[in-house]
Amino acid sequence: MSTSKKNAQGERLVPCPHCGGDAVFAPSNRYRPFCGERCREMDLGAWASESFRVAAAPPTDDNEPLPH
Ligand SMILES: [Zn+2]
């Protein structure tokens, strides 16, 4: 059962991917689908740090022979 929640302005509310709270899914919320700037920054920050970690430590190929 999916019930779409709406706020007082009749804008659709979706669960914030970061905190699970109500997030306004409408142009009035520039941080959608997040509930606000904090959650968006937190989520993007986690994604960015994950990318940086992966980029900084590329996976090693155990099957590749050593140079000598
Ligand atoms: Zn949130």
UniProtKB/TrEMBL annotation:
Assigned keywords, A-Z: Metal-binding, Zinc
Top-rank taxon: Bacteria
Swiss-Prot/TrEMBL cofactor(s): Zn(2+)
Keyword Transport carried by entry: no
Keyword Transmembrane part of the UniProt annotation: no
Residues engaged in binding Zn(2+): 16, 19, 35, 39
Gene3D superfamilies hit by this protein: Erythroid Transcription Factor GATA-1, subunit A
Co-factor binding comment: Binds 1 zinc ion.
Alphabetical list of InterPro entries matching this protein: DNA_gyrase_inhibitor_YacG, Znf_NHR/GATA
Assembly and binders: Interacts with GyrB.
Family from the record: Belongs to the DNA gyrase inhibitor YacG family.
HAMAP family per UniProt: DNA_gyrase_inhibitor_YacG
Reported function: Inhibits all the catalytic activities of DNA gyrase by preventing its interaction with DNA. Acts by binding directly to the C-terminal domain of GyrB, which probably disrupts DNA binding by the gyrase.
Designated name of the protein: DNA gyrase inhibitor YacG
Organism: Roseateles flavus
Organismal lineage: Bacteria, Pseudomonadati, Pseudomonadota, Betaproteobacteria, Burkholderiales
